[in-house]
Design brief:
about 500 residues; single chain; mainly alpha
Length: about 500
Amino acid sequence: MSIRALAKDTAVYGLSSIIGRFLNWCLVPLYVYLFPSEEYGIVTYLYGVTAVMLVILNYGMETGFFRFANKEEDPERVYTTSLISVGTTSLAFLILLTIFIHPISEGLKLPGQWLFVWLIGATVAVDAFCNLPFAYLRYKNRSWRFAGIKLINVALNIGLNLFFLLVCPEIAKTNPGLISWFYEPMGGEAFGIGWIFIANILTSYLILLLLMPQLIGRRWRFAWDLLRRMLSYSWPLLILAIAGMLSQNMGQLIIPYLISDEEAARSMIGIYGANMKIAIVMVMFTQAFRYAYEPFIFSQAKRAGESSGRMYADAMKYFIIFGWLIFMGVMFYLPFVRYFISPSYWSGLEVVPVMMGAEICFGVFFNLSLWYKLTDRTRWGMYLSLICFAIMLGLNIWLVPLIGIPKGYMGSAWGALIAYFLVMALSYFLGRRYYPLPYELKKIGLYTLLAGCFYAIGMSIEMFFPVWLVFLLRAVLLGAYVLVVGNSENIPILSSYMRRFNVRLARK
């Protein structure tokens, strides 16, 4: 797989990720319009718990599958062994969740919402199992099928949300007999945010049906020796992923334990979570890159020589180039983008640039992770993630109560940015020792400086020009960034345009 193929797959995965996240993003105005911030805070909080549990139930087997499928003579045996292992643990999780649902709900500080907790837990169990068929599609480079099913997932979820939250209340008023068999037993419109979790669990089970071609019609084999080797490789990745996911969702998860006023804490989580949905554009880009990058690095590992190292370094450079372009685009047009959430949540807009910067640092940290994955030093990944988690936890414990109600979530945002930056720098210096790569630091630094200068100019000109001219000048700045970088990187269309421009300038 070349850089061009990596870019193609990133674009395809990004298509499903961006469209999917954008459509899910469009549900946020619905949620914040229908529910007050303290109720939406419960949704945000449980989604944070979901992300952590999904990582635990996958226990690094997704990356382990890519590593051993490219390493072993029989990739199918690797796949079926992984499926049986994850399927068994997911089923055990669901059984234990059902038995201990009440103490678990109390431990999550949601004693009155045990049904919400069970619904989200049952959804996680299915999603954890489905991750491996999705990984198999990526391994087979079937990016279009992967993207198609992901988009169906989103469409189903959105459709069910609209049906339960908007259509059903109207039907209940005009013709209640049509839906009374399922609507009334759940409490009808009063079930509120519970319908969001119902939509999630139905969507997950329907997606499992669509993934059946990746599950049936194959020879199922399970190898204990292979599983032991995979777990030996993957268990540090599990610690890494748990610490990483706890870090990514630190604000949503820890605020209820740091702010004694429960209603205020949930409101803060709701505002924080809603504004993070604006910064999610950077998350979408990082996720799309990750989907394409993992198969890329392991397939390139089969090659020897300088070419692979150069491609790894180029991937890092282009990630940063596009990351800064997305950052500037969102921040320059935030006055429009902010309308995706209710004005009652705009008090948290200052979260957006901080979290987007944090996401760029996280993306670079993920990009750097290849040095310990390819050298089988996955314990280093665990150490780095634990260090990141410890720094972020400490900063949250210090900053959130210090800032207090109602802006305490800014402590979580700054904690994320500082922690990701520090662990990114540490991973780079460790990588230089164990797996040195020819990263073009001078170019990366210049592009970062250029983006920083353009960002500062673009945000300051609003003090001197009318609104329409401000947005026009910001578009010019974005275009200038693209042209300068394109010329520097010899991107054919952009560099030829710049050459013609320079020739005309010289004639004058």
